[in-house]
Amino acid sequence: MLRLTSYTRSVAARRAPFAGVLRGMASATSIPEKQKAIIFYENGGELKYEDIPVPKPKSNELLINVKYSGVCHTDLHAWKGDWPLPTKLPLVGGHEGAGVVVAMGENVKGWKIGDLAGIKWLNGSCMACEYCEKSAESNCPHADLSGYTHDGSFQQYATADAVQAARIPKGTDLAEVSPILCAGVTVYKALKTANLKAGDWVAISGAAGGLGSLAVQYAKAMGYRVLGIDGGEEKGKLAKKLGAEKFVDYTKHKDLVEAVQEATNGGPHGVINVSVSEGAMTASTQYVRPTGTVVLVGLPAGAVIKSEVFSHVIKSINIRGSYVGNRADTREAVDFFARGLVKSPIHVVGLSELPRVYDLMEKGKILGRYVVDTSK
Ligand code: 8ID
Ligand code: ZN
Ligand code: ZN
């Protein structure tokens, strides 16, 4: 049964202790040899719900018993093979995994068995290059990516570099925190990248999707005025419920640029592009306010955007890319959630139902975020 999870789940469900495992030693009684996973052997091929071996953590890694994982549109891109960077094959996708540390390699520092931990898109990075040195670890040329180059969170046990794994406060609802681990971190960082101040207008293009529904809330919590853009009445209702002051339905306006500029009294100071639409991104370069910032986040296959040079110069606009976030962004984004400033509008289904979730996502029928329960 689908449901928009209420925020009143039992304390028992929030806490998922997993005790009795020795450091670096997978105890045979508590950690099984095999586990359930969704795995594919070729891009676009069958998504198989299979029993596969539980991975062994390397010396620098945690083994996390994943309880819940959010389903990001990136997982769909990865399965389809949409991007120029090849995925590992076979692959277990997923990069919004929330769970419990059950084992760890001998070089891990600062973690205990039973801690709550998150699997992020950036599973690990080299920590030695110029980008890692400057806290831009996601831009590391050696980045290892969960659910892309490293088996991710659509399995019951997954490994993560202990340095990059997200720290989740004790007592946190693991289903609800899971979308924060990619969607939340990404939109929070994108909002920082837009360089706005309190009272500025920000347009969230793709406002009712997984990233967008969190972007609306982070933006509001950061003191900005939010215009949501998405398609359809239901999406408008959700964006407004989450805090958008205004909503523009792109399917209903012949002149989107005019509609957005009118709603924001001359154009938004910032735009967070989280739709999977090249056209929507190009339009944002036209409706953004003079001196404003367009932030590119969504990654439609093969997309290229054009910005008309004359107005780009005369309006002195900025176009910036933003790619997940670093460890500090993660800590801060989780903190907004922990303080109740941001809530995850989630639908929880079994892991085995992932193919149906991809189908809904492909058709643009998802409101908020689907989260899979790895026990089903
Ligand atoms: O670090 C990054 N840059 C990063 C991190 C995570 C995800 C980038 N992403 C990328 C994903 O790979 C994907 O391309 O962000 C994109 C959005 O991910 P998502 O939020 O997980 O997707 P979704 O839940 O399907 O939401 C997309 C929303 O866009 C709307 C849809 O209706 C949906 O609500 N949308 C579309 I498609 N076309 C639109 C348009 N023309 C539109 N909204 C406004 N205008
Ligand atoms: Zn993601
Ligand atoms: Zn590096």
Automatic annotation (TrEMBL):
<dbReference type="Pfam" id="PF00107">
    <property type="entry name" value="ADH_zinc_N"/>
</dbReference>
<dbReference type="Pfam" id="PF08240">
    <property type="entry name" value="ADH_N"/>
</dbReference>
<keyword id="KW-0862">Zinc</keyword>
<dbReference type="InterPro" id="IPR020843">
    <property type="entry name" value="ER"/>
</dbReference>
<protein>
    <recommendedName>
        <fullName>alcohol dehydrogenase</fullName>
        <ecNumber>1.1.1.1</ecNumber>
    </recommendedName>
</protein>
<dbReference type="GO" id="GO:0008270">
    <property type="term" value="F:zinc ion binding"/>
</dbReference>
<keyword id="KW-0479">Metal-binding</keyword>
<dbReference type="InterPro" id="IPR011032">
    <property type="entry name" value="GroES-like_sf"/>
</dbReference>
<keyword id="KW-0560">Oxidoreductase</keyword>
<dbReference type="GO" id="GO:0004022">
    <property type="term" value="F:alcohol dehydrogenase (NAD+) activity"/>
</dbReference>
<dbReference type="InterPro" id="IPR013149">
    <property type="entry name" value="ADH-like_C"/>
</dbReference>
<feature type="domain" description="Enoyl reductase (ER)">
    <location>
        <begin position="44"/>
        <end position="372"/>
    </location>
</feature>
<dbReference type="GO" id="GO:0005737">
    <property type="term" value="C:cytoplasm"/>
</dbReference>
<dbReference type="InterPro" id="IPR002328">
    <property type="entry name" value="ADH_Zn_CS"/>
</dbReference>
<dbReference type="InterPro" id="IPR036291">
    <property type="entry name" value="NAD(P)-bd_dom_sf"/>
</dbReference>
<comment type="similarity">
    <text>Belongs to the zinc-containing alcohol dehydrogenase family.</text>
</comment>
<dbReference type="GO" id="GO:0000947">
    <property type="term" value="P:amino acid catabolic process to alcohol via Ehrlich pathway"/>
</dbReference>
<dbReference type="InterPro" id="IPR013154">
    <property type="entry name" value="ADH-like_N"/>
</dbReference>
<keyword id="KW-0520">NAD</keyword>
